[in-house]
Design a protein that fits this description.
The complex is a heterodimer of chains A (about 450) and B (about 170).
Chain A (H helix, E strand, L loop, with lengths): L2 H7 L6 E6 L5 E6 L1 E4 L2 E4 L12 E14 L3 E15 L5 E12 L5 H7 L1 H15 L9 H9 L5 H16 L5 H28 L2 H4 L20 H26 L2 H15 L13 H22 L4 H31 L5 H4 L2 H24 L14 H13 L4 H33 L1
Antiparallel strand pairs in A: 1-2, 1-5, 3-4, 4-7, 5-6, 6-7
Helix pairs in contact in A: 5-6, 5-10, 5-11, 5-15, 6-8, 6-9, 6-10, 8-9, 8-10, 9-10, 10-11, 11-13, 11-15, 13-14, 14-15
Chain B lengths: L12 H9 L3 E6 L5 E6 L2 E2 L4 E6 L4 H8 L2 E6 L12 E11 L11 H7 L3 H4 L2 H4 L8 E14 L9 E4 L1 H4 L1
Antiparallel strand pairs in B: 1-2, 1-5, 3-4, 4-7, 5-6, 6-7, 7-8
Classes of the chains: A alpha+beta (about 450), B alpha+beta (about 170).
Chain lengths: ~450, ~170
Amino acid sequence: MNLGEALSRLPDFPHAVLVVLDEGGYPLSVATSFRVVDGTVEVTPASLGQSAVRDAVAAQLVVSHIRPYPGVGYDQRRYIELSGTLSVGGPAWRFAPQAARGWDEQDLSFPELCQRALPQARHYLAGLSAERGRPVTPQMGVGWRFFLATRLPFLTATIVPVLLGLASAAYDRHFSPGLAALTLLGAMAVHLGLNVANDIFDTLSGVDAANLTPTKFSGGSRVLQYGLVSLRQMTALAAVFYGVAIIVGLVLVAISGLGLLWLGVAGVLISYFYTAPPLRLVHRGLGELCVALGFGPIMVLGAYFVQTGHYALRPLILSIPVAILVMLILYANEVPDRFADAKTGKRTLVVRMQPAVVIRGYVAAVAVAYLVVIVGVVFGVLPWPTLISLLTIPLAYQTWKGLKAHYDSPYQLMSYLGKNVSLHLYTGLLLVIGVLLGIIVRR
Amino acid sequence: MVTSAAVVAGMPEAVVELLNKALVGELTVIDRKGHLRTDPLIPFWDGRYILMTSSILFSRKLEDIKRNPRVSLSLSDPVGIPAESFSRATIQGDARVIDDDLHRGWYRLLPLWEAKEPIIKTLLKPMQKLGLPLFWERAIIEILPKRVLWWPDGDTARDPQVTDLREAVA
């Protein structure tokens, strides 16, 4: 906060606290009234009893405000701390401010304030570590660290397309529960490996550190920034997930045939080079396409192939709506991340386009997703009960409205990013239900 | 909430009332260059010490207190201190930082904190804490009061009642 801005806001506060050093070397504070006059502050003299206030080369004037919220706590936190010199004598004392510091939660949200303060937290922990001769780190249970580091809730993006591939295979009279479980395990391992690798490379490239407005949907898991997990632990975790994915993939190839190998290799490569150098696909505006391919056709067709041993048009068509909607999760999540992404050269689609174009793009993509279902049904490729997936149109409408209204407010946007994740989940699950209902109505 | 005059070690009862009701007080510390630094914090009173808690995210004041324990706390805001009869006070004292267990040590302040800010209980649920984990790594600031200035009706143009606690807390 600069001095001019601080002085212009000062009259909003009904009183100030004047602070000086007393003769014993203690800070001594007293509330008083004031008024701003030509860049200085006239302060009403206050009585400190026997401690006389003298001219002070180092004094402070502090104003603060909260609004009590009975039964809850308080909100509307704001304060300004002015440092300067104090001249006493006469009917009014004069405080000449030289520097200002402050915070207003209506200008800078508390979560963002906390992100900006991360270096101070690290500095304090480093000091404690040096003092105690052992590393002092933030604590969190292993389970919660795993939950956070892997971004576990986002697994729905994998579960939905795998279920869709399996349902599609069942529609074509092929279903092995054992293979289905193995497929799900392999797909989840690739996805978790991707999430962890993404954090590693975004940390190494400085993208996550530059992001001061992360939300639970964007900005990475932050476990590395918070010091909850080390880079070495994250690397080991990614290696375990990719290892599991490769082993499961090879087993499935051995069972289902070489036709699956190319799809699996494409999936692992896209997942790894999504943020890893030298390709860093997400930095080249290809992240959305990669996510659409990986969590759309590759997952749906892969799950279908494992069950049937061949590819088909129906699962490919079914994969398009979920591919688009999963792409839109990333696309919308890039909105709050766009400044940090741009700073570090991560040229996502949202960074490259104007806000109005980004929003129009969202609407067009959602429309295409629903249109594919309708056209698929009209041409007899998809069973007609898959039309129940259109029930999520109101959710898509709400998400679009929120995106438009809160494009520049990361924390207000958060609930709409949540709706966007639900849009993919519910539409995908309704497609699965639609395909399964198709088996019943066909009889 | 501590109100018994017997346990407040000489702290004027009216100031105890302010401490027990205050949602905010202005804590001033002295930084490494000898400059003043003031932050609004929520104060608690346990009968002997004024207690506060600070996240490691906002730990500059903790570093300052470790170098120079002399602090001052102003209780001055009629809105932030919903006491029945308003008055103002300034408390000078020696502060100590307790940071041997940043993760759980400050939990001993929870009953006092919850009494003033009930939402804290909700914010401490594991899923909630995941959002800002470092905010919940916290130290305790323990202030031993040395001198209290109290303005009965909040009018600081008048002389305050001064209570010297140095002997009482020795």
